[in-house]
TrEMBL record:
Signal peptide stretch: 1-19
Origin superkingdom: Bacteria
Protein source organism: Chitinophaga dinghuensis
Pfam families found in the cross-reference section: Bflower_2
Name by which UniProt lists this protein: Uncharacterized protein
UniProt lineage: Bacteria, Pseudomonadati, Bacteroidota, Chitinophagia, Chitinophagales
Keywords on record: Signal
Length: 134
């Protein structure tokens, strides 16, 4: 669950204009997102893409979901998670799974710090969690 939240949180913090990273609490890069929407695990292997319209594709360019302003959907448009304006991340049943603070700190549901995702939209961080951490 922490890995999922961490990934989701990484994509959602702010806007981005250049490559941004999602880091563990020890400072290791877990994911990076380039200015053109390429998602990499670490800094090298491409695992997916975020299109400007919110479409999420895997490394083979197959649509796997969508990022909306307040939620994450699977490829069938079923909601799988929510991102609240205050940074609270919820699963499809509205159970809190974590938080993304304004400074980019990512916390689990118990408010324990599990990483950071500054400079990335909160919705995108959530997306990474739901689609690329499993």
């Amino acid at each position: 669950m922490k890995k999922i939240l961490f990934s989701i949180s990484m994509l959602l913090c702010c806007g981005f204009v250049h490559a941004q990273t999602i880091k563990t609490t020890t400072g290791n890069t877990r994911f990076s997102v380039s200015s053109d929407g390429v998602i990499r695990n670490g800094l090298t292997n491409t695992v997916g893409y975020i299109k400007s319209d919110g479409t999420i594709e895997n490394a083979n360019y197959q649509v796997i979901g969508f990022v909306r302003s307040d939620r994450i959907e699977d490829r069938n448009n079923s909601t799988i998670g929510y991102v609240k304006k205050d940074g609270t991340i919820e699963d499809r049943n509205y159970s809190v799974i974590g938080y993304i603070k304004n400074d980019g700190t990512v916390q689990d549901r118990n408010h324990s710090n599990i990483g950071s995702a500054s400079g990335i939209k909160k919705e995108w961080a959530a997306l990474i969690c739901f689609f690329f951490e499993f």
